[in-house]
Amino acid sequence: MLIVRCVREDDLDSLFDLIQKSEFGLTTLKISKDELESRIERSLFAFRQKDARPQGQPYVFVMEDMSNGRLVGTCAIYSKVGGFEPMYSYEIKKSIHTSEGLGIKKEVDTLHLRAQHDGPTEIGSLFLSPDYWGGGHGRLLSMSRFLFLAEFRERFEDKVIAEMRGVVDSNGVSPLWSALGSHFFQMDFPKAETLTTQSKKVIGDLMPKHPIYLPLLPQEAQDVIGKVHANTEPALAMLLKEGFENRGLVDLFDGGPTIECELENIRAVRESKFGTVGAIAETVDGGSQQIISNTRLDFRTCLGQVSWDGDVATIDQISALRLDLKNGDSIRSVNLKPT
């Protein structure tokens, strides 16, 4: 009995309690209750806008277990990154060093600080209560955002990115942070994580502007650059199958990769079907289980049975109730996994 829906004002307390369970490295969830309240307020304003262009608005979603009213997950879409405060990352580049006299030519990986002021759309802030891991629940939570992107295309940029959580242990220790960022911030990873959630300006103030030669870093730091946390590996695999690619950007602090894809090339966006509800049935003959959504800004999605005949769909009664759909309403659906 799980649905994914847009956040509501009265979700504040439950959502704050939920994100307290999130682990180190989920930077956008390491916020105070006041900051969460502000994010929810901005999200509500974004959902209410009838004609919105990407200006950095957060669209916050929650997963609710309708059997008990409990919030068990959350995720978000940030319509645009950058702007007044740029998005910072490291870009991995090759530096070539040559000595003709010695007959030596050496390629060395270097990290270059990159600031994006006019950046892409970002999907992020994904967290699912460990009690609900498995059963396709995480995939439903993540994939629901793609149906929203497909339905409200004009609200987002042409490119979509996802910053994947890097390697950080249960004590909040990041090998890359210990080797690099800690020398400039003079604080531990969890404190820096919280600080930079509040303001990105300190990154531009403190992080080195010159290239960082990877061989000069300790081996344990080199080994985690471009790697993800063990709990993030399923999410990375899912997004790669949806069309996202690693194009050489990594997080400044934990070294996790930033993957990206053109919005129109995301599998779930490209393959999603749009049409109207032609029938609601107790059993959908010849149907398949898909992610189904309404097409309203009061957005809701769930897993359900659907059968398409052209642009007319038959859906099951339970999904119709969950999504508040009736005959003649428009819907969108897509297979949960690539066929």
Structural write-up:
With 339 residues, this protein is of the alpha+beta class. The chain contains eleven helices and 15 strands. Helix 3 links the parallel strand 6 and strand 7 (159-163). Helices cover 26% and strands 35% of the residues. It has helices spanning 12-19, 33-48, 137-151, 175-179, 182-185, 189-198, 201-206, 219-222, 233-241, 267-271, 317-323; strands at residues 2-6, 58-65, 70-78, 82-99, 104-118, 121-128, 159-163, 212-213, 245-250, 257-262, 273-281, 288-294, 300-309, 312-316, 330-335. The chain folds into two domains: 2-91 and 113-268, 3-Layer(aba) Sandwich (Aminopeptidase), CATH 3.40.630; 273-335, Barwin-like endoglucanases (Beta Barrel), CATH 2.40.40.20. The mean pLDDT is 92.
Quote the average pLDDT.
92
CATH topology of the largest domain: Aminopeptidase
Shape designation:
globular
Structural class: alpha+beta
Task: Provide the domain count.
Answer: 2
CATH architecture of the largest domain: 3-Layer(aba) Sandwich
Order of neighbouring strands in the sheet with most strands? 11-14-13-12-15
CATH-wise, what's the superfamily of the largest domain? Gcn5-related N-acetyltransferase (GNAT)
User: What is the name of the CATH class of the largest domain?
Assistant: Alpha Beta
Instruction: Classify the helix fraction into a percent range.
Output: 25-40%
Low-pLDDT runs: none
Q: Return Rg in Å.
A: 22 Å
* Total helical elements: 11
